[in-house]
Specification:
Blueprint: H1 10-20, H2 29-41, E1 51-55, H3 61-66, E2 74-79, H4 82-85, E3 92-94, E4 107-113, H5 122-132, E5 133-144, H6 150-164, H7 177-186, E6 190-203, H8 206-215, H9 232-246, E7 253-265
Parallel strand pairs: 1-2, 1-4, 2-3, 4-5
Antiparallel strand pairs: 5-7, 6-7
């Protein structure tokens, strides 16, 4: 079998989350919004899910919304960052989503909200999730899609090309909705569904967006990015471009976030 390409620095991701564990409460509105969106889907599914695993739980936002739904009795919350998961209530543990330490057929429902986008081998992790589900179990995960941070991506690319004549990866590649169902089928899920919606966030300035990304631990984890970081001249030029091209009359700027939801069932004889 071929080995998956290593795109993300998982050690850097853990360090970013460790650092953000104390500041994320100031920038967690998107995680909470997506957790609510996922929870809103569960009552439409006429099944009980007594045992649940929430991967990449951050501070345990999803538990607050789903603990009283669909016959849920026990929720295990896991995150790659010990400092981050220490804020979650209830059952919790530290684990890497690329190497899941759970037995076969352990859970009725596996969820994840904005965490699996940092996986190097997403199909491999989906296969592991399928293995951990009981027959007839459900997986429902949310990830950022291709339209996410399109304004910031364009601004950084324009600034770097203009000042250096080249490009360095600054923003992660995201899951394409069109490929979502195929990923689920490849991992062995039945009745695979991939859908998306775009949320638009309004910031007072582009700098506020950057501050929120840092506070939530969602800054660049790409291996291919320059180790020296983003120089000040490129950053300032990108912020100026962002303000000029994506601001409203009141001065506020848009930041797009495409939320892709992947839903699949474990085969049940």
């Amino acid at each position: 079998m071929s080995h998956p390409a290593i795109i993300f620095n998982r050690t850097r991701l853990r360090h970013h989350r460790d650092r953000a564990s104390a500041s994320i409460a100031h920038a967690d509105f998107l995680f909470r919004e997506c957790a609510q969106l996922l929870a809103d889907r569960l009552p439409d599914i006429k099944r009980h899910f007594p045992t649940v695993l929430d991967l990449g739980c951050h501070h345990g936002y999803l538990r607050d919304y789903i603990s009283s739904l669909n016959g849920i009795e026990w929720i295990v919350q896991a995150d790659i960052s010990a400092r981050m998961v220490s804020h979650a209530k209830g059952a919790r543990l530290v684990c890497d989503e690329e190497f899941l330490p759970f037995a076969d057929a352990s859970f009725d429902l596996v969820t994840s909200v904005f965490s699996l986008q940092w996986i190097n081998d997403l199909p491999g992790t989906l296969i592991q999730i399928n293995r951990m589900l009981k027959p007839g179990g459900l997986m429902m995960v949310m990830l950022p899609g291709g339209q996410t941070l399109k304004e910031l991506r364009q601004s950084l690319e324009h600034a770097e090309l203009d000042l250096t004549g080249g490009l360095s990866p600054r923003i992660s590649p995201f899951v394409d909705t069109r490929d979502g169902a195929g990923l689920l089928q490849r991992a062995g899920f039945t009745s695979p569904v991939a859908d998306s919606e775009v949320l638009t966030i309004h910031y007072d300035s582009p700098q506020n967006l950057i501050d929120d990304l840092r506070s939530s631990g969602e800054t660049n984890n790409l291996l291919a990015s320059h180790t020296g970081g983003l120089c000040r001249s490129i950053f300032d030029a990108a912020m100026d471009y962002y303000q000029e091209h994506f601001a409203h009359a009141n001065g506020k700027v848009n930041a797009s976030c495409e939320v892709v939801t992947l839903t699949g069932w474990k085969k049940d004889a």
